[in-house]
Design goal:
With 119 residues, the chain is an alpha+beta fold. The chain contains four helices and four strands. It is globular, with a radius of gyration of 15 Å.
Length: 119
């Protein structure tokens, strides 16, 4: 298992547009081999004293935090998917106008140390 995590600030009024983007993307990622995607919209994200989710993505007033992750069978499948993304015109055709500022997105890939509740 290989996990990619994402943290994004999305304008509150663009929740529907973000959801549409996430759903279209999920279908394509499924073709590439992803096994699970979770997209979480901010509900209870406290402000921190030293750091917090908002500070991490430089969220502006009126933006909500999206916390998401994708689970791949392994890193090799994830890496292959990124190669396919570079060649697939779907991404340019569908997502020329993103509902968030991608420059402030934080992401990374992780090998699990521990999981609970998964087979």
């Amino acid at each position: 298992m290989y996990v990619q995590g994402f943290l994004i600030a999305v304008p509150e009024g663009k929740q529907a547009a973000y959801r549409e983007l996430a759903q279209k993307s999920a279908a394509k990622f499924a073709e590439y081999g992803v096994t699970e995607i979770v997209e979480g919209w901010e509900e209870d994200v406290p402000d921190g004293k030293v750091t917090d989710f908002r500070m991490a993505v430089k969220a502006e007033p009126g933006e909500k935090i999206v916390f998401s992750w994708m689970i791949w069978p392994d890193k090799a499948t994830c890496d292959a998917a990124h190669g396919k993304m570079q060649e697939d015109p779907f991404w340019e055709e569908e997502f020329g106008d993103m509902p968030f500022d991608g420059k402030r997105m934080i992401y990374g890939g992780f090998s699990p140390l521990f999981t609970m509740g998964r087979d």
